[in-house]
Write a structure and sequence with these properties.
Elements: E1 7-15, E2 18-27, E3 32-38, H1 46-56, E4 60-70, E5 78-80, H2 82-98, H3 107-111, E6 117-119, H4 124-171, H5 174-193, H6 199-213, H7 216-235, H8 240-259, H9 264-284
Parallel strand pairs: 3-4
Antiparallel strand pairs: 1-2, 2-4, 5-6
Helix pairs in contact: 1-4, 4-7, 4-9, 5-6, 7-8, 8-9
Length: about 290
């Protein structure tokens, strides 16, 4: 299946009085670009999260957010660090002995002291298996959303390739007639302008110019590229870069077709092809 690089997933887990919350957001990018927003107490989870995401995704700018908060059903119980409090009291007494007029520590300052408050939240080692399970579930959800989006993109691209193929099929039988008509017009004009030139020379020049406006080869290459686009869509997998290359090739052939056009209907078809190719190219940028 074709996968888009755009997706979103969110998963939560309750664990021993805390709730783990993980979000994954992805948008298009040339390579796999990972960004993490992780709570300080869970920072150790980044390496394993990075490894899991890299194993599942090959392209896209992915943002991973992991937070932990007390569960509403089981609020945390706070406790003072008695040892640290005792040390803080001793240090304050020593300072006040030297500086009697110094202001004492307030309760708020004591409570904000690093490491002063502890709670009954589980340690990181106890949460790590749940974080891994949470990440796997979120990646499965993200892959599902990217797959659904990819299916829509594939349908849109197939509609455009079908229209381009119809244009190629419509133009191919017209090419010999277009070339012959243009030859006749050019031959008449050259005869009028160069009445003294040898007739064989005039015909040779007309034939050479007719070869330059013959677009049969361009139409053939367009058909081949369109077949390859459909083949890649059917094969699935990481197809974005290959499809992007084919969009460049299709655009090159459409440009050549327009520059060599010798009939209004051929010019119109070439312009329509360029519009269809640009529409496909915009969507291909979102394919993994």
């Amino acid at each position: 299946m074709i996968h888009s690089m755009t997706g979103f997933a969110v998963q939560t887990r309750d664990l021993d009085g805390v709730r783990l919350h993980l979000e994954l957001r992805s948008v298009n990018s040339r390579y796999l670009d990972l960004a993490f927003r992780i709570a300080d107490e869970l920072r150790q989870a980044e390496p394993v999260l990075r490894e899991l995401i890299a194993a599942h995704l090959s392209r896209g700018k992915v943002e991973c957010r992991l937070t932990v908060q007390a569960s509403d059903a089981a609020p945390r119980r706070l406790a003072l660090n008695a040892g640290l409090l005792e040390q803080l009291c001793e240090v304050e007494a020593a300072v006040r002995a030297r500086l009697p007029q110094a202001a004492g520590l307030s309760v708020a300052e004591v409570l904000r002291w690093p490491g002063m408050l502890a709670d009954d939240s589980p340690a990181f080692d106890a949460m790590q298996p749940a974080i891994v399970e949470l990440a796997r579930a979120a990646l499965a959800e993200l892959s599902a959303t990217r797959r659904r989006e990819g299916e829509k993109l594939a349908v849109m691209i197939r509609e455009r390739t079908a229209r381009m193929r119809a244009l190629v099929t419509q133009l191919a039988p017209r090419v010999p007639a277009i070339v012959a008509e243009y030859q006749d017009k050019l031959l008449t004009r050259l005869r009028e302008a160069l009445a003294s030139v040898d007739e064989d020379r005039i015909r040779q020049e007309v034939a050479l110019f007719a070869q330059r406006i013959d677009v049969a080869e361009e139409l053939s290459r367009l058909a081949a590229h369109l077949d390859e686009v459909d083949h890649i869509l059917a094969a699935g997998g990481a197809a974005g870069k290959r499809l992007d290359f084919l969009m460049q090739e299709l655009n090159r052939e459409a440009n050549t077709l327009a520059s060599k056009s010798a009939a209004a209907d051929l010019t119109g078809a070439a312009m329509e092809m360029k519009v269809l190719i640009e529409q496909m190219r915009e969507q291909v940028q979102n394919i993994e």
